[in-house]
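Run folding on both entries below.
>entry_1
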Amino acid sequence: MKKIPFLFILFIGFINAQKLTSHEISLINNGDVNTALPIYQTTDANQHNTLLSLSSEINPVDPNTAVLVKRMKESLLSTDGGVGIAAPQVGINRKIIWVQRFDKEGNPLEYFINPVIVWRSELQNLGPEGDLSIPEFRDQFYRSKVIQLEYVDLKGQKYSELVEGFTAVIFQHEIDHLFGILISDKKEKEKNDSYKKVDAFKRSDSATR
């Protein structure tokens, strides 16, 4: 019997673990694939359950991933003042986010696949946040001033970068979504925490993610 290299077996297992389900593929390709996907709301019990669920990694080179990335952008653009969105907010518990980069010229929108925060500064910001999935909810939250982020693109190329200020806040908010963490629940956890406050927020209270 021909031996198969161990690393090759690990690679195949990794890819198979990322396969989209038939239900996910159906949701991603439902209707016109050039249009926005509906944004899930906590006011709907089934949608709320999806928002509270953990997300898993996704295969960046799967053609369905590119469709999901494109439709998520359209969903974000369809909002009034949204600055970020995560895949669970369109019903797919997979690790994809879009973030408006206020730290770059022109404030471009950029996507991030399988993003991971590998380091956070101890210094915290306190500022306003809202959420596209939680109607009429706004409050003040603590976030790390600087983060180090790792992610891949649609070609599977890996990147690492440091992000700070309000853009770092958006990243932290969206990546929380991938762990089923909503700001309405986060507020309860923070009540007894204390941080040094730093004003790095540049947007108004209407900014939603």
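>entry_2
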Amino acid sequence: MTIPEPDNLSDANLTAQGLRPAGNGRVLLLACGALAREILALVRLNGWDHMDLACLPAILHNHPEKITDAVRAAVDSHRANYARICVVYADCGTGGLLQAACDEMGVEMVPGPHCYAFFDGLAEFESRGEVTSFYLTDFLSRQFDAFVWRPLGLDRHPQLLEMYFGNYEKLVYLAQTDDPDLTARAEAQAARLGLAFERRFTGYGDLARVLEGWALQGTQGAPATRALQKP
């Protein structure tokens, strides 16, 4: 079975509405809308036709206190339709509440503090100790205004820039794809914030390895994973 391209995969829709599952497959990946493109790319690349994808609105990224309840409600809504549900969120600012909820519901979730860490690689991210770095992914490079500039009020009160970013030293763009336009956008955002710029090509990082493990559970003779990784 060929996995179709959803017709509502725009950044605006993924930000505000999320993504409904196609209703195919035995395993549902319940994810943040900011990860939809990367997950679908891995599913197609590896022929994981038994996996379906549903996404919650990516804007929950800015409201971590709402993530746990939203995930719990979505698991309850979809549980009867799938043999297994896997949650493609890391902790994402929930303070351990999401992990506790997933344990209670008997569903797996991605390890780590947030998507920056699992794209970079959990071990690598922790070892860097970059407490003065601000991170963007491909999605956030495209959606910088919607997720950073406007929510922080910088479009209306630019004098707040120093208060929010005065303790940062650089913007690190964790690139999932080799896209010159996204790199240029991320570099422009660094200049906008008055920060040094670093591009770090991560590919899909630990996300690919976690999804591979879930894909292979209960399957026999599955093909090897083909994932865009670090050079």
